[in-house]
Amino acid sequence: MVDRVKYILWGMGLLLGLAGTPLLAQAEFLVKTVVLSKEVNKRNPQGIFRPPAYCEKDKNGQAAIPVIQTSQTSQVIFWTKIEATTTGTIRHSWHHQTNGAWTKISEVNIPIRPSSGYRMWSMKSLHPDLHTGEWMIVVAPSKEPDRILCIARFTVK
Length: 157
Prior knowledge:
Elements: H1 2-19, E1 29-41, E2 44-48, H2 56-59, E3 67-68, E4 75-84, E5 88-98, E6 101-112, E7 115-125, E8 133-141, E9 150-156
Parallel strand pairs: 3-9
Antiparallel strand pairs: 1-2, 1-4, 4-7, 5-6, 5-8, 8-9
């Protein structure tokens, strides 16, 4: 009986010890949806570019990427829906490929709260003489920019 009580107490101690450990340490933020659009109305994307945007990790580079015509719009909005189990900040880093190398053009840090689908977006103005070519947007926690949650690519013509 004493051994059984010790075993139960040991198990409870183990559970209590784990309670202080974040079981979802690598999953505080999960990108559910990404969209490239012309605008946002009532927190929802409008004028969605085709083909649809996606996170590369979800498609393994096997799908067509959106093409944005500067003759049709002067801006692009990157809209994301993220599941969050904690408060934090998400970073959208916009990169443009020039002469075969990626250059970071801008970074937007967006606060996030716990939610099953927190909607956030950032925007880039487009100028035909400057911004044609390949683009990618990297989504990561601001405090851990190397922990990439999503990479979305598009082309500007």
